[in-house]
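Reviewer 2 asked us to include a model.

Predict the structure of this chain.
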Amino acid sequence: MLRPLRVAVVGAGPAGIYAADLLTTTGRDAGREVSVDVLERDPTPYGLIRYGVAPDHPRIKDIVKALRRVLSRDEIAFFGNVEVGRDVKVEELHELYDAVVVATGAVRDRDLEVPGVELEGSFGGADLVRWYNGHPDAPRDWPFDPAATSVAVLGVGNVALDVARVLAKSADELLTTEIPPNVHAGLSRNATTDVHVFARRGPAQVKFSPMELRELSHSPSIDVVVHPEGFEFDEASLELLRSTKSVKLAVDVLTTYAAREPGEAPHRVHLHFCQDPVEILGEDGRVVGLRTAVTELDGTGRARRTGETVDWPVGAVYRAIGYRSDALPGIPFDETLAVVPNDGGRVLDLDGEPVPGLYVTGWVKRGPVGLIGHTKSDAAQTVGMLLADTAGVDGPARPHSAEVLAQLRDRGLDVTTWAEWERLDAAEVALGEAEGRARIKVVDRAEMIALGRSEG
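Predicted model (structure tokens):
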């Protein structure tokens, strides 16, 4: 009988957890025992579900219940506060495990190559998201300009809407969520009354989900203003409306907003279509406006500039045009596509040959697109390849989880375990219960680790 297979998964977001789940269950169904150690640079699990989903989206965060069931299993170990490439090398992982699956996701803002992007008041949307979600590496305060009553958000995805909604809501509205005290204090200094969201193409090309669009109007302090420019549908847009239910639902919501009379709410979210950001305008080193090129659809759903430009007086610009994965030391990386080069999940070297024992899944495999369902199918494809490649692997046993943990701690690493996360989780829930909330996040990394190790 073959010995148990030992696999390291790098990243404890949904992609990594789904891979760990499938490795153990599919392996068992095939008659092969597999145990998995999940290594995560944060002290906590769940990745972008904890630090990338807006705090006023509790329904989306319900996915944590399923992820928790996976990480609670005996054959899966969680090692947090361990950064692969800094605390442990990939070469060391190959010595400790039969295979390594990279599932580090994408957390950094995609670059926007326009003049003025370096100005004070020009921000990455992902950086704001990490701040309002209480990530331990985010600054404790956000530099809101008291004079910036109008701000711009660039992007047509759900993150752009999250950023717009959080900026437009009053700080006290978010006191029902898990935001930590420093975030509430920061948002209380936010002077924004008008958030302008800019889309380069038309309503049929936006990536907002219909649910996200509808939720914009759920706040009593926000009026949604959809501007009529860009509502001319070309043939490609009409075909999308006919063939794609989610596109039709989103356009229906936008059309309903556009037909409404302006309300009297203290804050407004403006949606502008066919406006391509071409320059962030500055004065004395800080943002004073945004210049957009007016576009029109060319019949194929793509946008072309008309030659007309518009200057918008805004005091800050938030870029939410997508996420980008980062390279991991010791692992091939395509800087142009910002993914680990792979063939269906097998990592490829510079010559296009598979790297033995190295696999990839999730956004770092295919780019930051798609929903949770895509992440599951990614993991299934990668795990299938891994199990096929290791079907006959035997020989001396690899170190088990407790031995790996001891090795990591022997080198002075403050590794957090699943049991420690559960104690921190309970501490955050208790903080929330004291104020009538489901949870209040702890932000400081050292405090998080200390609470996880407290038996009280």
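Residues 111-322 form a domain with the FAD/NAD(P)-binding domain fold (CATH 3.50.50.60). The chain has two domains: 5-106+325-416, 111-322. We have added this to the supplementary material.
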